[in-house]
Design a protein that fits this description.
single chain, alpha+beta, five-stranded antiparallel beta sheet, three-stranded antiparallel beta sheet
C-alpha cells in the first residue's frame, strides 16, 4: 500500500457506527433500485410534453403526442383529497382520555393552539406535498419539529416571526427501513439529506441543540484543506464507497455539500449482545459520527409517520394509484400517434409514380407533365380503423379513471340515464367509496399521528406564553388569548376529522333530503328545530364566512326594511302636505 493511500485512509477515518449506518443505507437503497426506476418512469409520463422523454420515444411514429391522462388523474385525486381533508376550519378535534383532559377550557385551548399553528405555518402546503407523494409514490412520510424563528428589523430590534411546531415532508427517495416490518414504528429508519456547508454553519451558530455540527465542520475543513495533495485515483483506491449524487469521493469533498445520514430506532451489537433502543445517530461524509443521543420524544418512538395507498403483502413499501396505469398510458400514446400517422397517411398519401414524370409539387391545381406510358397514382387508405382507434382510446381512459379510484362524479362526469337528485347523490356516494377509504386511511395513518407528534413537540419545547386567536361563541367574535405549555399538556389526542366529517355530511344531507321530501317529512315537521337545521345546512355547505345564516336574521332584516319603508312614506306625505296650496 502506498504512503498516500495510508495517509488518506487515516485522514478520512471511518467510525464504527458510521460504517454500519452507511452500509444499511446502501443495502436497503440498492434493494429498492428496481422500484426507484419505476418511480422515475412514472414521473417521466406525468411531466412529459411529448413522447420523446417516455418509453414511447422508441416507437417509429412520426407524431409524438402524449395524452396527459395520468397527470389529469393525479390532479383530480389531489384536488379531491385536499378538499376532503380541509372542508372547513373545524377539521380537527381534541379527544381527552380523562374527565380533566376533556374539560371545555382544555379542549378549546388545545384546538385553538393547534388550529392557529397549522393555519400560519404552512401546514396545508406541506400536507399538499405529502398527498402528491401518496399519489405518485404510494408512500408519504413526515415528521414534526419545533421552530423559533425571529426577524431582525432595520433598527436592530428582533421580533418573533414564528414559534411553534412545524410539519416536514420526507421524500420517499430519502428514507430507507426494513420493508418486512408491519409498521413504520416497528423498524429503524435512516434519513438522507444534503446541506451546504453554510447551512450547517448556521445550524451550529444559531441553535444550541445543534452545537455538534461544529466538530463536523472542523473535520470537514481538515479534509478539504489536505485533499489537494491527493488525486482522484488515490481517493478511489483508499475509500471504497461513494456518496449518492456525486461522481466520487474527491468530487464530493470539493463540492461544498455535506451528506447527512440519520439513524432513528433500535440496534443490536452482535459482538457484545447489547440492545440499544430509541437512539438517534447522525453521521456525515459516510465516515464521521457527530451525534448519538436518546430520541427526545416524551412518549417514546421515532418522530416519523407513514401512510401508504395500496398495501403489499409482507412489504411496507406500498403501491400508488398510478403504478398499474403506466402500461395503459403507454397504450394511449401508442394508439394516439398510430391514429395520427394513419390520418396523415390518408390526407397526404404516398404517390406511386409510373414511367417518366417531370418533377412536380403535389397540391391543389398542380400541373403534372407525364410522358407516354407514365402515370401518378395516389395510394389511398381506409379510415375505418382510425375511427375504431378513437373508441378504444375512450375506453382506456374510462378504465384508468375507474382503476385509480378517482371520484368521477365530483368532476361532473355523470353516468347515462335519467335520475332523480336523490339517485344521483346515492350513486355518487357509492362510486366514491374507494376514494373515501383511501383519504380516510391517509387521515388516520399520517395526519392524526403527525398532529399529535406536533403537539408533543410543542409541549416539550414551549416556554413562556403564546398569543393565539380564538372564537368567542358567546359574543360571536374572534379574540386573542394567551396560552402556556400547561394549557396544552393533557392526556388525549388530536383527531383530524375533515375527511370523515366530509363523508358523513354528504351522507347526512342525502338522508335528510330523503326524509323531508317524503311523507315522513310532514309528520316530523312540527318537531324540528328550524334554528338547528339552519346550523346544519350552514356547516354542510361551508358558507359560514359569509354569515348568511343566524337565528331570525330574516325577521330582523324585514323589520328594518319595514321601518325604512314607513319612514320614506312619512317623508313623502309631509312633502306633499308642504306643497299643497293654503
Amino acid at each position: 500500500m502506498s504512503d498516500k493511500i495510508a495517509e488518506l485512509q487515516n485522514l478520512v477515518s471511518i467510525d464504527d457506527k458510521a460504517a454500519w449506518v452507511s452500509h444499511l443505507w446502501d443495502q436497503y437503497n440498492n434493494q429498492r433500485r428496481e422500484k426507484i426506476e419505476e418511480w422515475k418512469e412514472l414521473r417521466d409520463y406525468l411531466f412529459a410534453t411529448d413522447t420523446s422523454s417516455t418509453g414511447n420515444g422508441s416507437l417509429p411514429w412520426k407524431n409524438s403526442t402524449t395524452l396527459p391522462k395520468l397527470t389529469q388523474i393525479r390532479d383530480n385525486l389531489h384536488a379531491n383529497y385536499i378538499s376532503a381533508l380541509f372542508p372547513n376550519d373545524n377539521w380537527l378535534q381534541w379527544q381527552g382520555y380523562t374527565l380533566d383532559d376533556s374539560l371545555k377550557a382544555k379542549a378549546e385551548a388545545i384546538e385553538a393552539y393547534m388550529g392557529n399553528k397549522t393555519r400560519i405555518n404552512g401546514f396545508r402546503t406541506e400536507v399538499s406535498k405529502l398527498l402528491y407523494d401518496f399519489i405518485d409514490y404510494g408512500n408519504a412520510f413526515a415528521f414534526p419539529s419545533f421552530e423559533n424563528r425571529t426577524k431582525e428589523l432595520p433598527d436592530g430590534t428582533e421580533v418573533t416571526a414564528y414559534v411553534g411546531p412545524v410539519a416536514h415532508r420526507v421524500s420517499p427517495l430519502d428514507i430507507v427501513f426494513n420493508p418486512l416490518a408491519d409498521r413504520i414504528d416497528n423498524t429503524y429508519k435512516i434519513i438522507r439529506s444534503t446541506k451546504t456547508l453554510g447551512e450547517i454553519r448556521k445550524l451550529a451558530e444559531t441553535e444550541p441543540d445543534n452545537h455538534f455540527w461544529s466538530d463536523a465542520l472542523k473535520k470537514r475543513q481538515e479534509i478539504v484543506s489536505k485533499a489537494g495533495a491527493y488525486s482522484i485515483e488515490d481517493f478511489d483506491k483508499a475509500l471504497g464507497f461513494q456518496v449518492d449524487g456525486f461522481g466520487n469521493m474527491h468530487e464530493y469533498f470539493q463540492s461544498g455539500y455535506m451528506e447527512i445520514l440519520e439513524f432513528f430506532g433500535d440496534y443490536h451489537d452482535a459482538a457484545t449482545g447489547e440492545l440499544t433502543t430509541d437512539r438517534v445517530i447522525t453521521i456525515v461524509d459516510r465516515s464521521t459520527l457527530v451525534r448519538d443521543d436518546v430520541m427526545p420524544q416524551m412518549y417514546g418512538g421515532s418522530p416519523f409517520v407513514h401512510a401508504g395507498w395500496r398495501a403489499r403483502p409482507d412489504n411496507l413499501w406500498h403501491m400508488g394509484p398510478l403504478d398499474n396505469l403506466v402500461g395503459l398510458q403507454y397504450r394511449l400514446d401508442h394508439l394516439e400517434n398510430l391514429k395520427a400517422d394513419a390520418m396523415d397517411l390518408c390526407i397526404h398519401p404516398p404517390l406511386k409514380i409510373i414511367g417518366e414524370v417531370e418533377e412536380f409539387a403535389w397540391g391543389p391545381g398542380a400541373e403534372i407533365h407525364i410522358d407516354e406510358g407514365g402515370d401518378v397514382v395516389e395510394l389511398g387508405k381506409n379510415l375505418n380503423n382510425v375511427m375504431a382507434a378513437n373508441n378504444e382510446l375512450q375506453i382506456i381512459e374510462d378504465r384508468m379513471e375507474l382503476y385509480a379510484g378517482a371520484p368521477r362524479e365530483a368532476m361532473g362526469v355523470r353516468s347515462p340515464g335519467e335520475k332523480t337528485a336523490f339517485e344521483v347523490q346515492e350513486l355518487a356516494t357509492a362510486a366514491g367509496r374507494i376514494f373515501q377509504e383511501k383519504i380516510t386511511h391517509f387521515e388516520r395513518e399520517l395526519l392524526e399521528p403527525l398532529l399529535n407528534k406536533m403537539l408533543e413537540t410543542a409541549q416539550r419545547n414551549m416556554t413562556g406564553n403564546d398569543v393565539i386567536r380564538v372564537m368567542d361563541n358567546d359574543i360571536g367574535a374572534e379574540i386573542f388569548s394567551s396560552v402556556t405549555a400547561e394549557d396544552i399538556i393533557a392526556n388525549g389526542k388530536i383527531r383530524p376529522v375533515g375527511a370523515r366529517h366530509f363523508a358523513k355530511q354528504a351522507q347526512d344531507l342525502q338522508n335528510l333530503n330523503g326524509v323531508l321530501n317524503g311523507a315522513v317529512g310532514e309528520m316530523v315537521a312540527p318537531h324540528m328545530s328550524a334554528i338547528n337545521l339552519t346550523k346544519f345546512i350552514d356547516d354542510v355547505v361551508g358558507l359560514k364566512a359569509y354569515e348568511i345564516f343566524s337565528p331570525n336574521a330574516a325577521v330582523a332584516e324585514q323589520q328594518e326594511t319595514q321601518t325604512q319603508v314607513d319612514s320614506a312614506e312619512e317623508e313623502i306625505m309631509m312633502q306633499r302636505e308642504t306643497e299643497m296650496p293654503v
